[in-house]
Specification:
Helix content is 35%, strand content 19%. By secondary structure, it is of the alpha/beta class. The longest helix has 14 residues, at 11-24. It comes from Microbacterium resistens.
Length: 276
């Protein structure tokens, strides 16, 4: 059973706020009789630094919900002019389809490279960057009433097992691990995102489900996590991109830079994500 990972709530926000405060200080010895400089439109009081404003629309894989909510809050605190709209979380395949069908999005964070490739192949994004990794665990209700010990136990027909659908990154990873172990599972349901799988385990509707280790950690005492031998054989690499047609490209680019910064990576690490 894995203990829940510590949260560094507000860490990035505090660090960024401190950084902004330092940036606002005048250098020692600066002349005091100089006429105040009025920033021109589109720039901040720091020379060469663009003022960010407007709305920012982000689509992100369901497994990123906790981390990206914290990152978005920190980003808004550092850039008060930017309004990060409520982030759309779902399976990466669902989100990719919505973007291809015309959803107006500035930033897309996928839980795998396969679904991000759909976006680049459609000519909707040029540059993508990996920013995190994740692996699967077996999630069971607290106390493990089904006495699940490993993947092989999931083949027991008396157990109710749920997985993600095959086209969803967590489902693809689950199939990879089950095939490698030679285990055949007939799931009671195949969900469109990892959040739905976890919800069924948490509520006791399922005896076990295959989810990311970050989801088990986020659920804390509500579920137990069982490590999977060879889980790194199906490590998911999470890529991030600014859509070529982003309505707020400056803010989108700044958000991606923040996610990749030491502060952003610290938040991701606290939620259990590995480095790419």
């Amino acid at each position: 059973m894995n203990a829940s990972l510590p949260r560094r709530a507000g860490l990035a926000a505090a660090l960024l706020t401190a950084a902004l405060g330092l940036g606002a200080c005048a250098p020692a010895g600066a002349p005091t009789d100089a006429a105040p400089q009025t920033p021109s439109p589109g720039t901040s009081s720091a020379p060469g630094e663009e003022t960010l404003d407007g709305e920012l629309t982000i689509f992100a894989a369901a497994s990123l919900s906790g981390a990206f909510d914290e990152l978005a809050a920190a980003f808004e605190q550092a850039h008060p002019g930017v309004d990060v709209r409520p982030i759309s979380y779902d399976g990466s395949s669902v989100l990719a389809t919505q973007i291809i069908e015309g959803a107006a999005v500035d930033v897309f964070a996928s839980a795998d490279e396969k679904n991000m490739a759909k976006i680049t192949d459609a000519g909707l994004a040029t540059t993508t960057v990996p920013f995190a990794t994740n692996v699967l665990q077996i999630a069971v209700p607290a106390g493990n009433p089904g006495d699940v010990q490993g993947l092989v136990d999931l083949a027991d027909p008396t157990l109710t097992v749920v997985t993600c659908a095959a086209e969803v990154p967590c489902g693809n990873a689950a199939h990879t691990l089950l095939d490698a172990a030679g285990v055949t599972v007939t799931p009671a349901s195949e969900e469109q995102n990892v959040t739905a799988v976890l919800a069924k385990v948490r509520s006791g509707e399922a005896d076990a489900g295959l989810v990311y280790r970050t989801d088990v950690a986020a659920a804390a005492s509500e579920v137990d996590g069982i490590d999977i031998d060879g889980a790194d054989q199906a490590t998911n690499v999470y890529p991030l991109t600014v859509l070529d047609g982003a309505a707020n490209s400056p803010a989108a680019t700044a958000f991606v830079d923040f996610v990749l910064s030491p502060d952003g990576r610290a938040v991701l690490a606290d939620f259990g994500f590995g480095a790419p």
